[in-house]
Specification:
Structural class: alpha/beta
CATH architecture: 3-Layer(aba) Sandwich
Shape: globular
Radius of gyration: 23 Å
CATH topology: Rossmann fold
């Protein structure tokens, strides 16, 4: 293999939006509100039509997966939009078929399941950090498209996002976690180990795209250096990938409250929250 070809393989994708001015909070909130209205419409159609949707979010640490998922779910019904973020597998789960613990969370009719990291842990963190051997990784890369074909053939709408962040932006975000008491809990020993292995993750990502980008379950990459733009762009893309209509709604009118009759509000001997603000 020539050195030129090697350089091409290891070249990092450029993050988009670098020539755009930062998105202001007012504009972001205005656009997000519009998208939230559409997400509620999608939610109602998913329930009415009995759709089954899986949305996978993958990406390096600090790529913005959690913030994007929060932006998607903050105005919808958590019983319809369910977020799955599985911890490290137990000893029992390690003995199971690899994808088994994820399948337990697959959607029934009328559900949208969002995986904050997914079965692709095997192609990413497990591979890079040495939690499984290369034989298991290669087996996974070969079998994942077949398993996803079964999912899609069963009626599941499967959407896979990879959030791409630059090394400079990743450094900035990790440093912010160190210095911000609100974010320090996000900084784990695994984050620091992952940080030092940027190009190992790049090669793992490249193999993942090579083997598991398919016609029935393609990967969609989102540039996430600008978190606000990334969230708006991803939600817009998500809405375009799930066919939905505005479900008919009955006109809602609040009924009259009952008359108090002989009820008198008592004075309860209870503790009350101190009004500091």
């Amino acid at each position: 293999m020539s050195s030129k070809k090697k350089r091409k393989e290891h070249k990092e994708p450029k993050a988009g939006g670098e020539d755009k001015a930062p998105l202001g909070n007012k504009e972001y909130e205005r656009e997000l509100k519009k998208l939230h209205v559409e997400l509620v419409k999608l939610q109602e159609w998913v329930v009415q039509a009995g759709l089954k949707v899986i949305v996978v979010f993958e990406g390096r640490d600090t790529a913005g997966k959690g913030g994007t998922i929060k932006a998607i779910t903050e105005r919808v019904n958590p019983r319809v939009f369910r977020v799955v973020a599985l911890p490290a597998p137990s000893e029992r789960e390690k003995s199971q078929m690899y994808i088994q613990r994820y399948m337990a969370h697959f959607p029934a009719a009328g559900e949208v399941i969002i995986f904050d990291r997914s079965w692709y842990n095997r192609a990413g963190v497990e591979r890079v950090m040495g939690f499984c051997d290369e034989k298991k990784v290669q087996r996974f890369l070969e079998m994942a498209p077949k398993a996803e074909r079964v999912m899609v053939d069963s009626g599941i709408i499967l959407i896979k996002y990879w959030l791409e962040v630059s090394p400079e932006e990743q450094s900035r975000r990790l440093e912010a976690r160190i210095d911000d008491g609100r974010k320090v809990w996000k900084l784990t020993p695994m984050d620091l180990k992952s940080y030092s292995r940027w190009f190992d993750y790049s090669r793992a990502r490249d193999d993942m795209f090579k083997y598991t980008h398919s016609d029935w379950a393609p990967w969609t990459v989102a540039d996430s250096n600008d978190k606000k733009r990334a969230r708006l762009n991803i939600i817009t893309d998500l809405l375009s990938r799930v066919p939905y209509k505005e479900a008919p709604r009955a006109k809602v009118q609040l009924p009259k409250r009952q008359a108090p009759g002989k009820y008198v509000e008592p004075v309860h001997e209870v503790n009350r929250v101190k009004e500091v603000f």
